[in-house]
Design goal:
Blueprint (H helix, E strand, L loop, with lengths): L10 E4 L2 E11 L3 E8 L6 E6 L5 E4 L5 E3 L4 H22 L16 E3 L2 E7 L3 E3 H6 L8 H20 L12 E4 L4 E3 L41 H17 L5 H5 L18 H14 L11 H15 L3 E2 L14 H13 L2 E5 L6 H11 L6 E6 L4 H7 L3 E2 L3 H11 L3 H16 L5 E6 L9 H4 L5 E6 L7 E3 L6 H12 L9 H10 L4 H14 L3 H11 L17 H16 L8 H10 L7 E2 H13 L10 H8 L4 E5 L2 E5 L2 H11 L7 H14 L5 H17 L5 H16 L3 H19 L4 H16 L3 H19 L4 H16 L3 H19 L4 H16 L3 H19 L4 H16 L3 H19 L4 H16 L3 H19 L4 H16 L3 H18 L5 H16 L3 H18 L5 H16 L1
Parallel strand pairs: 13-17, 13-18, 14-16, 16-17
Antiparallel strand pairs: 1-2, 2-3, 3-4, 4-8, 5-6, 7-8, 9-10, 10-11, 12-15, 19-21, 20-21
Length: 1062
């Protein structure tokens, strides 16, 4: 290559204007681009010289280009292309759309020196290739690279919007201004199907051009889409990240170029970011255009997501002020400081209620000048989960957690833990950070070593014994210190000299346990008892059976014995006159023992537990006197959250209150009843979040109330019902089984409630796909009903129906039909031919006929059911809506979409009026309408309805549920019909993951999910993957269906067709 600068020219006169050539800005296959400055102008411009390297022989001394002899025709053809480039640039710029600043102004080419020169207006800056080679990005953060790609996409979007593809995107053809604006140049290869000339001149650049451009000369010979340009954008991103363009071998062995977080721009980055970036590059540098992102908008969204993942997360600062009455412990505070100076952690061990947490708070507070960040977290079973979900970081909110859960599924917690630990070690290296892990009540944790391996400091509090850096927090040894602590809690009263000896004896008696001492001081303060009276009553209240008579004057007492002594002391305080003898206090504490550890609003607790007891004909106002007295005595904790007062018990006091006062359904009848009512209210709309709140409300009562009464059984039933709806089937089974035991003792075997519970147990087993256990439970329920109440009892009809549903799930449709018919005939005898129950059975039989491909019979039974429902309930009842939905589905299958839509819209109107728009039942019809629109090819409408259904179902059932899987599958089908196979693949993948999580491995729905994935991989030309999914679908279908079933035949046909291709 011989440039103008090579022959000594530094100026160029074009149209009587002189341009000073500063340097070569870029070199292409047919051109040289110079950075230049027009005389008398401070702005820069670019001068593009036509110089085809394969046709140019050199230059004369005056700069005239010499072309090879005999290549006149080729040179003229290339010049025509150069002229065309300017026209395309002008066409892109001069439209109604606002292109500033993305499309540069190209002037018409000027003839001179036997060649062409094109002036391209620009401003200060340089080509992207210069920035990269000059090391501009070498010390920049990953987010700066993302910003560069986003700017390139901003420049590319208006080109695509006007129907053009650039097809020559590379660092040489991108101009960067000082304002970080990227501008495309070189439209020599640009192509538009609507271009009247139909010309296409592909330029292939190693490392940047998409593989499909190689070896083609006509755009019509290959389908070109925006993904061809997006390949080049991803290739630029690759170059910037790896320091080299992509090479041929990179496709064969992706692992050779995969990024990691040990070096380069992603050093120290989260695993999620590394995996996501590798996935982005692998996807968009794929040889298969179908696998790439298909639009600038999609790529922009992915780059923005990567950028967000790179945002620096910072541990939040959340120090806690210690109790103002916490005194002494200076020796332990000094020991903590000494341990943390030589090690990264210290464990404060000791029995409950001895002040470990307050000690950690006091150390952190007194040493707050040493630490920039202090955070307290509560151990929640294992360090991995605790760090992942309890440790708070800025820029790591629920939305980011959702990204992890979406990408990693059940392994999300592991990746969140790893990335948070990585951030701690990288971002806080050398910083002064203190983390307090409270209630680390475990002997060992698999992630302990990794957690303590950073530069930050950690304090653990624990009741368990450990090795290593441990400080045993025992009772306070110094009587003088304990006396000082006593005075703090006894304040504002002054301890007299006469009282002190008795107080000292109390101190010795309680083994220095700070919580016990706090309670004694408070009781004395609030009851006006003297220290002598308190000592006498305290001694008298000790219970020998509770091992509180251990010789306290001995030096050596085991930790277990010490804990029993301490718990015995706290229990003995309940026997003192002002607690045990006060019926109101005892009643309040008994009820508080079943309040959730997180507490209840003070007013709600009063209304639910105490209002009947304190009701007065004379006064309507609440009487909080006794609650406030217990708060003053520090038996009850009170705190204000968002201007609302909450009451709760310290876990130690809660345990003692439970053991001493033994709450049951009789003592706590009002509170238990109201907890159940509140759960019923919370779960009114039957959403996932509401059910979670319901379990929290009942959890403590469920675990502590065990007397065998009808109310206890109701509590167990309700808790089991909620767990059943949350798909926590083991908990549901436990609750139903306990209730069954209680009710059997109350009623005996032959009772409706017993039959009903066996039926509930059967339904749990049915959901767990344990069909044999389900059938055994239903048979037991049936046996009780038939033996105790005869063949015509209404429970018999219900159980027949559930047995039919079980056989339906097992794919044994003849047996299902048999039991549904039995249920139908019995319901006719019980309720008459025109009853709601009969209509429901008719509907169930219709659904079986659909499964058996007998649509005519199905429609007949649906219509019979519809006539009954409408006649009894009217046209606007929710049961009618359900039936309309089923009829619409069937009519749509029969090909009458217009009539089917009428039924769906009727159903939707009823459901929206009955439930509102965001209800699980409403989602059924939204989804059905979406399926209909899919069938008739109106995909935008289909997507709208199916996505609405999906949103409702995720809120109602959580992410892993059968309805959510159905919605994902429907959306996947929409994208499949639109030939957007990548999105279809994404949703079909989600469908399979969900169904694998909730069904056994041979469930027919899992077979269906495999079949759909096989279809998608077939369309993507990934035949080996298609084969794998087809074979798995066939295996499952052969287990689930007879050999001649249509689904088995269809999959066999698909496999046969695939054999011919491969």
């Amino acid at each position: 290559m011989t440039s103008l600068l090579d022959v000594g020219a530094d100026t160029l006169v074009l149209n009587e204007k002189t341009y000073t050539l500063l340097k070569i800005a870029g070199v292409g296959g047919s051109s040289i681009v110079y950075k230049a400055r027009p005389d008398g102008d401070s702005d820069y411009c670019m001068v593009k010289e036509f110089y085809p390297h394969d046709l140019a022989e050199g230059r004369e001394a005056d700069g005239t280009v010499r072309f090879l002899t005999g290549q006149t025709t080729a040179v003229q053809s290339r010049k025509s292309r150069a002229m065309r480039e300017s026209e395309i640039a002008m066409r892109l710029r001069h439209t109604e759309a606002n292109n500033d600043p993305w499309i540069l102004l190209y002037e018409k080419p000027i003839q001179k020196n036997n060649t062409l020169y094109t002036i391209i207006a620009t401003e200060k800056g340089e080509m992207l290739s210069e920035r990269i080679s000059d090391g501009y990005y070498a010390d920049k953060d990953f987010t700066v690279l993302c910003d560069c790609i986003l700017a390139i996409l901003d420049a590319l979007e208006p080109i695509h919007d006007k129907g053009y593809l650039h097809l020559d995107i590379s660092p040489d053809n991108i101009h960067c201004s000082k304002l970080s604006i990227m501008r495309m140049i070189d439209y020599n290869s640009a192509y538009s199907p609507s271009d009247p000339s139909g010309e296409f001149f592909p330029s292939v650049k190693r490392g940047y051009s998409a593989p499909e451009l190689k070896g083609i000369s006509n755009a019509k010979s290959l389908r070109l889409n925006p993904d061809t340009d997006l390949f080049s954008v991803a290739a630029i991103f690759f170059t910037m990240l790896k320091g080299r363009p992509i090479e041929e071998n990179d496709w064969a062995i992706p692992s050779r170029w995969f990024l990691n977080n040990e070096e380069g721009y992603l050093k120290g980055a989260s695993k999620l970011l590394v995996d996501s970036t590798n996935a982005f590059l692998q996807k968009n540098l794929s040889r298969n255009p179908k696998l790439r992102l298909q639009s600038v908008a999609e790529m922009r969204a992915k780059i923005e997501e990567l950028k967000r993942l790179r945002q620096r997360i910072e541990l939040e600062n959340s120090p806690k002020r210690p109790n103002v009455h916490f005194v002494c412990r200076e020796k332990e505070i000094s020991d903590i400081d000494e341990y943390l100076q030589r090690d990264s952690y210290v464990i404060l061990e000791g029995i409950g209620g001895i002040g470990k947490t307050e000690l950690a708070k006091k150390y952190a507070w007194e040493n707050r000048e040493k630490y920039d960040i202090v955070q307290f977290i509560t151990y929640s079973g294992d360090l991995q989960t605790t760090v992942a979900y309890s440790m708070k970081f800025r820029n790591f909110d629920n939305a980011k957690i959702a990204q992890y859960e979406s990408k990693y599924g059940n392994e999300a917690v592991e990746h969140i833990f790893c990335d948070k630990m990585s951030s701690l070690k990288q971002d806080y290296h050398g910083k002064r950070t203190l983390i307090v892990v409270d209630n680390y009540n475990t002997v060992a944790d698999d992630h302990f070593a990794k957690f303590i391996s950073g530069e930050y400091k950690v304090i653990f509090t624990s009741r368990e014994k450990h090795n290593g850096s441990v400080i045993e927090i025992t009772e306070m040894k110094s009587e003088d210190d304990l006396l000082m602590l006593f005075r703090e809690y006894y304040s504002p009263y002054k301890l007299t000299g006469e009282q002190e000896p008795a107080v000292r004896e109390i101190i010795r008696l309680v083994l220095g346990h700070t919580m016990t001492l706090m309670l004694i001081a408070t009781v004395m303060l609030k009851s006006d008892k003297t220290s002598e009276e308190m000592l006498a009553r305290f001694k008298k209240g000790l219970d020998p059976k509770l091992r509180t008579k251990i010789a306290v004057d001995k030096e050596e007492i085991s930790a277990e014995d010490r804990e029993n002594v301490v718990y015995g002391h706290i229990r003995s305080l309940f026997n003192l006159e002002d607690i045990a003898a006060n019926e109101n206090y005892a009643f309040i504490m008994t009820n508080m023992a079943i309040v959730p550890y997180t507490g209840l609003e003070k007013k709600i607790f009063y209304d639910w537990a105490l209002s009947e007891r304190y009701r007065s004909d004379e006064y309507d106002d609440e009487d909080y006197t006794d609650i406030d007295c217990l708060v003053d005595r520090r038996w009850i904790q009170e705190e204000i959250r968002e201007n609302v007062r909450y009451v709760s018990l310290h876990p130690v006091i809660s345990d003692v209150a439970c053991r001493e006062l033994m709450p049951d359904s009789v003592k706590c009848i009002d509170l238990v009843g109201n907890l159940i009512k509140e759960c019923a209210r919370l779960c009114l709309d039957k959403t996932y979040v509401e059910y979670i709140e319901g379990t929290k409300m009942l959890e403590t009562a469920y675990g502590r109330i065990s007397d065998e009464t009808k109310l206890t059984a109701n509590l167990l039933d309700f808790y089991a019902d909620i767990c059943f709806r949350l798909a926590k089937y083991n908990l549901a089974l436990d609750g139903y089984t306990k209730s069954l035991s209680i009710r059997t003792k109350i009623y005996g075997e032959l009772h409706e409630d017993i039959a009903d519970l066996y039926n509930s147990v059967g339904l749990v087993y049915l959901e767990m796909d344990e069909y044999n256990n389900a059938l055994r439970s239903f048979d037991k329920s049936l046996e009780i009903c038939q033996f105790g109440f005869g063949e015509t009892h209404h429970y018999v009809a219900d159980v027949y129906n559930n047995i039919g549903s079980t056989y339906d799930q097992m794919g044994e449709y003849d047996s299902a039909l048999k039991y549904f018919r039995k249920s139908l005939e019995l319901k006719k005898d019980l309720y008459g031919a025109n009853s709601v129950d009969v209509a429901k059975s008719l509907n169930n039989i219709a659904t079986i006929y659909i499964q058996m491909d007998e649509q005519t019979n199905a429609l007949e039974y649906f219509m019979k059911s519809s006539d009954i429902f409408v006649g009894i309930l009217g046209e606007n009842h929710r049961s009618v809506a359900l039936l309309y939905n089923n009829i619409g589905t069937l009519i749509n299958q029969l090909g009458n979409s217009e009539k089917a839509l009428d039924y769906f819209l009727k159903a939707l109107e009823i459901k929206e009026n009955e439930y509102g728009k965001e209800h699980p039942d409403t989602s059924i019809t939204y989804n059905s309408i979406g399926v209909l629109y899919t069938d008739i090819g109106e995909y935008d409408k289909a997507l709208k309805y199916c996505e609405t259904a999906l949103d409702i179902r995720v809120k109602s059932y959580g992410k892993e549920s059968s309805p959510v899987a159905i919605s994902c599958s429907c959306i996947g089908t929409i994208y499949y019909r639109q030939k957007n196979y990548l999105k279809a693949l994404d949703y079909y993948d989600k469908t399979l993951s969900i169904r694998l999580a909730i069904y056994n491995e041979c469930h027919p729905e899992i077979g269906r999910a495999h079949y759909n994935l096989g279809v998608i991989y077939y369309e993507l030309d990934e035949y080996s993957k298609a084969w794998q999914h087809y074979i798995e679908a066939l295996r499952i279908y052969k287990i689930s269906y007879p050999e001649n079933h249509i689904k088995v035949k269809n999959i066999q046909k698909a496999i046969s067709e695939l054999k011919h291709i491969t």
